[in-house]
Amino acid sequence: MTAITLAHLSDLHLAHDGLRFPAWGLLNKRMTSQFSWRHRRRFLHVDTVLEALVADLRAMTPDAVALTGDLTNLGLPVEYRRAAAWVATRLPEQTAIVPGNHDMLVSEPWDATLGLWKPWMAARPQDFPFVRRVGMVALIGVNSACPTPWFSAAGRIGPAQAAHLADLLHETGREGAFRVVMIHHPPVPGIVSRRKALRDAGLFAAAIARSGAELVLHGHSHRSGLSSLPGPTATVPVLGIASASMLAPEQQRTAAWHHIRITCTKRGYAAEFHRRLVAPGRPVRQLPPWRFDVYRLP
């Protein structure tokens, strides 16, 4: 296979209105998220916007999908079940998922929550980071989501996961794969406030600097943008995407997904991505492409 197309979307925030769950499930940090949902967020994250985006994505028939977290709002078991059914019926079989902070607001049994998503990610907590191969592309999923104190949406990967990430990047790099790292929290400082930041972003950056990667994908900020991290031989693009269900007038915050085409060349790879913006009642708008080359040493 000489070319792979990859779709990147994030922060679905599937509406949970109408789902039945015990009231005691909100007697924790979920209480503030539910208040925010009822009074603000449900007017911003709209399922009809998400469905229009997914219809556009499916029409483009990507080979694989990278979904970088926040499928739920409260991280309730019933939301996990609904999200699993949604992914199974809306997205291609070759889909890889990493969790977001809303998916892990509080500690819950693995089998009742993230374990329901094991067809698309790690089977056990200790199996992060995981690798999914799609032709010459290696999708590497890192878990930055963890329960945090009230009013914090920060993330962490931890030393063990960072060391494993560096090893996986080295191994897949030696195999000649185009390495795409998926993480929910932006790994570049300054994209979000400290309250929402990846607290040990230095560990992530060190793994990239040591072993390299071709592309990093993230969500969480609800803004589309391009930044970078230093690699051992070249700068690594870091690509963020807005929420897939966001109703917003600003271009950076408008619901969007990335269509990424990765092609084998005589000297390595060429990658090109388009951002496709989705708004109700308007044609899908595609921004001009951004392209970069990856050269392999002989």
Describe the model.
This protein is globular. The chain has five helices and 13 strands. The strands form two sheets. Strands 1, 2, 3, 10, 11, 12 and 13 form a seven-stranded mixed beta sheet that branches. The model has no long low-confidence stretch (mean pLDDT 94). 21% of the residues lie in helices and 24% in strands. The protein is α/β, with parallel strands linked by helices and 298 residues long. Helix 4 runs parallel beside helix 5. The two termini are 21 Å apart.
**What is the number of strand segments?**
13
User: Secondary-structure element order, as H and E?
Assistant: EHHEHEEEHEHEEEEEEE
Indicate the radius of gyration in whole angstroms. 18 Å
**Average pLDDT reading:** 94
Give the SSE layout.
Layout: E1 3-9, H1 30-39, H2 47-59, E2 64-67, H3 77-90, E3 95-97, E4 130-134, E5 137-141, H4 159-174, E6 178-182, H5 201-211, E7 215-218, E8 225-230, E9 235-240, E10 256-264, E11 268-277, E12 285-286, E13 290-295
Parallel strand pairs: 1-2, 2-3, 5-6, 6-7, 7-9
Antiparallel strand pairs: 1-10, 4-5, 8-9, 10-11, 11-12, 11-13
